[in-house]
User: Fold these one by one.
Assistant:
Number 1:
Amino acid sequence: MRVTLKDVALHAGVSAKTVSNVVNGTGRFSPEVRARVESAVAALNYVPNFSARGLRNGRSGLICLALPNLSSPYSAELIREFALAAAGRDLGVQIEETGFDNYERERHLLSQARRHLIDGLIMSPVLLTSAALQPTPVTPPMVFLGEVRQDTTDHVWVDNVAASRDLVEHLIGLGHRRIAMLGLFVSESARLRREGYRQALTAAGLAPSADLEIPNPTWTTAAAAAALDEYLDRCPLPDAIFCLTDSQALGALNTLWRRGIRVPDDVSVAGYDDITDGRYAVPPLTTVGIDKARLAEVAIDLLIERIAEPGRRPRRVTIPYRILPRESSKPAVRRPG
Amino acid sequence: MRVTLKDVALHAGVSAKTVSNVVNGTGRFSPEVRARVESAVAALNYVPNFSARGLRNGRSGLICLALPNLSSPYSAELIREFALAAAGRDLGVQIEETGFDNYERERHLLSQARRHLIDGLIMSPVLLTSAALQPTPVTPPMVFLGEVRQDTTDHVWVDNVAASRDLVEHLIGLGHRRIAMLGLFVSESARLRREGYRQALTAAGLAPSADLEIPNPTWTTAAAAAALDEYLDRCPLPDAIFCLTDSQALGALNTLWRRGIRVPDDVSVAGYDDITDGRYAVPPLTTVGIDKARLAEVAIDLLIERIAEPGRRPRRVTIPYRILPRESSKPAVRRPG
DNA sequence: CTGAAAGCGCTTACAG
DNA sequence: CTGAAAGCGCTTACAG
């Protein structure tokens, strides 16, 4: 029923191989043959069957991007960069959500994922430990995104400890002393951001305190808003609040606004991720930004190289970050006394 | 090299067909055979080759979701719902960005898309006209999202005219008279939202005026913020601003804040889409919301039915909307005189 | 209930 | 430079 290579070959009066060559730009053929084949392709509306090609070549031209949470604005910005970078390399992107609390789902993706349909996997592991991340005979070629400590798999990361330390130092430099932290603490990135936060406090002679670490039970903006609200019912307003992601910071801004607390006059707020909605928040969020397009390109190129050469030594690429001070943070008002 | 069905069959001492049956849950087999096959699968770490299966079955188990802009928070929320709904039906989702100004890209997706690798296409057409949207022998099974007027393809939509009319009526009901509209006007949805806006004004005896329609050259929050800023340099502040999307409304809130204009005291603002960041904006955005999970489920089910029965009559499903009044809009202050 | 064969549509050696 | 054959790994008729 469907138009196949063979039909095109018949129509053009050449062999199937020649059609394949013309379609894929491989081998050699005269301009005249090329024209004949191309007009046959057009006349018959031929589109190659990618399943057959995939079976034969062992490549589908598809990669999978697995993130803990597809619905956050940060994920959206990342997904777009991956889609564009992949398209530029003639790859399609399949997406997958792993969640923040589903160890089995992460594991399953590594070991079972429609392997043989996807050529490789780019994943942001949240719960998997270094041992579970070892490549095995059944794991597909993969690249990790994020902060998992391991040296057996290609890996694109940002120095979260340094970035969050720098951000907190920025807040300290503005004169703030009681700096709280708000976030979901389960992922490795969150742990590292907390580590940077504590380092900055300690270096400035400020004792980190559990009283200033406000846990958010989930990753959502809504939960962050609620967590801060409850915190402020019990505790005095800090000088500044460092939120582990911009999405959570937006929740914090909302709660502060609702309580009539002015940002940055009464309290400074900072986030992490540099999402668009943070850039246009009221007030715009001080945050940590990275070049997301670069992250996507590097990850995809590492994956392409890994697919081509499965035995090569794992590489790790560090993406630089920038502290982006905006109107949500400002110098502390000197309190008399 | 790779473990195939045949290897499993050999290991379990059964035929390839039996392994296939057990793996797919088709045909009949004794519990004993099933156990033998399953332990062989586990022992050998067998994973079916989806390319081969796809070639044989004519199905890949993959669908494509094509949206104009992958990076917006609205897209992210939609993408997540599609990924979840698809996973629940054992389908994978490949994503594709079409842009707002690339007619050829939209066309290409329809006619060429990795057809034969994807089983179907869910697309939000922006530029394609009704004629270009006719199914042809080369278009894959497809479902449209959004407001394209046509009756040849399955279609999930929201009544944008009514929704935006209702929203603007809400603003009028609050006592506002000079109601501006801000947005990118290229897509069919935008045109319909404008239509609803104009209908509401007309019905209230307020003349629609080009002076109140503020075009945004792109879909971005940044451009919306800039467009409103320029507008306010030239024109008096309206009573209310209806933004065609929440993302653009967030840009508007930012510009108003920057200029020291209070929302909703000096001007009411409304958006469209009900994104999370609008819910937590300062102040929270009045908007139009739909059940995105339902939208995704309906679209995927329509696609599944279309794939199974290519000749069936096209259906159109209407997703209900709700006006969600929040703090960004409030009753007009009676001006003396 | 099981086995052997055919074939999905490609591409890659292998001959000519 | 071109043609005929083989085979990627499945599943679906077809026999037994």
Number 2:
Amino acid sequence: MVTSRSRRRLSPEARRGELIDAAIRLLESGKPVTNWVQAVTAEADAAKGTFYVYFSSWEDMLVAVRDRVLSDYIDRFRRLAETTEPVDWWEAIDAECVRAIDLIGRPGGLHDAVFHGMSPTTEDGREMAEAIAAALRRGMDEGVFRSLDAHMVAMTLFAVVHAAGDAIAAGESREQWLEAVRDLTRRWLSP
Amino acid sequence: MVTSRSRRRLSPEARRGELIDAAIRLLESGKPVTNWVQAVTAEADAAKGTFYVYFSSWEDMLVAVRDRVLSDYIDRFRRLAETTEPVDWWEAIDAECVRAIDLIGRPGGLHDAVFHGMSPTTEDGREMAEAIAAALRRGMDEGVFRSLDAHMVAMTLFAVVHAAGDAIAAGESREQWLEAVRDLTRRWLSP
Amino acid sequence: MVTSRSRRRLSPEARRGELIDAAIRLLESGKPVTNWVQAVTAEADAAKGTFYVYFSSWEDMLVAVRDRVLSDYIDRFRRLAETTEPVDWWEAIDAECVRAIDLIGRPGGLHDAVFHGMSPTTEDGREMAEAIAAALRRGMDEGVFRSLDAHMVAMTLFAVVHAAGDAIAAGESREQWLEAVRDLTRRWLSP
Amino acid sequence: MVTSRSRRRLSPEARRGELIDAAIRLLESGKPVTNWVQAVTAEADAAKGTFYVYFSSWEDMLVAVRDRVLSDYIDRFRRLAETTEPVDWWEAIDAECVRAIDLIGRPGGLHDAVFHGMSPTTEDGREMAEAIAAALRRGMDEGVFRSLDAHMVAMTLFAVVHAAGDAIAAGESREQWLEAVRDLTRRWLSP
DNA sequence: TATGAATGAGACTTCATTCAT
DNA sequence: AATGAATGAAGTCTCATTCAT
């Protein structure tokens, strides 16, 4: 298979983006990969050496992937925490849970690569937890949620959502798990 | 470093046990290890080749470690589910949660090595989940807990306890997390 | 599979013989074996260590196997060379060729283990070649065979027989090869 | 011994060639080698890992060596079989025998590595045997050789030549063996 | 004599990373 | 900026051989 790729000159931004995209694609595909650097560059139609022009190591790439995946979430929670519009907190929390469960439940190793070992000690972990906690705090302030330690609620919620996603990925019923999580949050967070 | 170790002849059982012990010790220590087989045999005061007399690969050892760690739990839950004595279900659930949190919260990679990727699809995962669910079911039958899908409650509880343990391992307050989990279970499972 | 074999005390002769038998059985079986010492002792229903009571190394065993297999041949050729009875040399050579071809043609790695690398430089090789040559020399002396360098004829014959055996082992027609060898010897050795 | 070799960047073709050359050199040298990959890369002034860029295993390399060594032969026989020029078959067969005997007789393990176990079942074996047989068939058609199964003649001839080469490598007289083979072919193949 | 648990040198292989072009 | 050939440290695993019992 001689895919004689000729030198493709791209802007650094674009090339870096293509590599991250390729990594995410592979991570999501769930195919077992051992030789990551080679697999990613092949997928991105770039040469192996090009990888190291943009990332200093494989760990570095993983950080980039995590950033990309999380920034979406974090942004949305920040907006929730900072908006001046009125927010339907129950609807918001349900929607975010579903969204997260579906991301995690998607078969493939993406969420694992992104979340595994992501404790509140990591930079990313803290940022994510804080964004969620900030939103929850507003819901508590407005009296919609019971007053609890928002940080701990955020972490716990994250764990629950994770479990649901895993179970769904393992073949259990999505509907039942969504309902179960909804039931749990209602019981737990209602004043 | 020639630690000219003399040949120690042990019964297969004993030697296998020593190797598992050594593995658990290292896993718990949290020291970063890359070359596990060599590290474990060194720790167990055995030769590298001896490892392969008892385990066909590192994965195989991990299974043995998991078995060892889980069997304790599973036994206790089975006893709860089968006893004819009256059980104080709230006390039981609290006690088990504390115990689990403390195991997981113990610094080091043991619980991670044992539990990571342990979904209800794995043999061990299913066995554990079932043992917990069976106990919960009795609590529900006796009307102490609300009637819910015991399997899902078990999995979720496991995730929550895991999160608590992780947080504690990361330095957060044990007391506050224990209290939070207690509060969650009360709210969630009370009829 | 706990074949709890209890200590079987055998005369050294008998035990050694059993081990050689087992080795030949395995060699003949053609099953791919990597761990020979272990395979042979298992087959002989003996402990691994017992092997080294009778053989100083695996090479040593191979020598014993070779001796066993060859001694038969050598004896027969010696008898041919030394008998005072009249010999039908054409019949004798045909019979020996068939016998050798059938040994070699028997599927399995025995003949390979025994003959591979057996050049006239090895002790065994020289002995075998000499025995054959001695018999041929008598056939020549009696005028039945053409006068040729008996040693070279022996070696060449050996090679031809080997090729025939291999071909048969590889699935070609035994009858045709036997006939071809017979034709070759007639043409080549007739005065 | 730190032979701080600097990085030599070669075209894949060139590097692969150098590795094969090195392997042939070692094979011919007859030195006992256990760790082939390491020995070959050292000989080729390359790093161990480089070997696996071009060959997936030592077996793979052996195939390449065989191809290299055999292609010469096969080509020559094919040409003989296909030429429209008149061919002096006796001269041709003598020349090829001498050539083959000299290759095999060259001390060292090359021919052994290449030919051992090369039965007519292997791809290469069949190809080689067929090329020889095709040439012989033409000699038979032209009435120079007696009519025989060309395939069997080819295999047998191969074996005889092999024996001669081995004997010469073991120190016997080249002249006598060449003469013996010549005598054999004359007797056997003349109409 | 017999056992089988223990050994460790070393073979094989992988893959993140480097660097000459 | 881009390439891809080259590297070698590091890991996994095998198996003939040893030796305490």
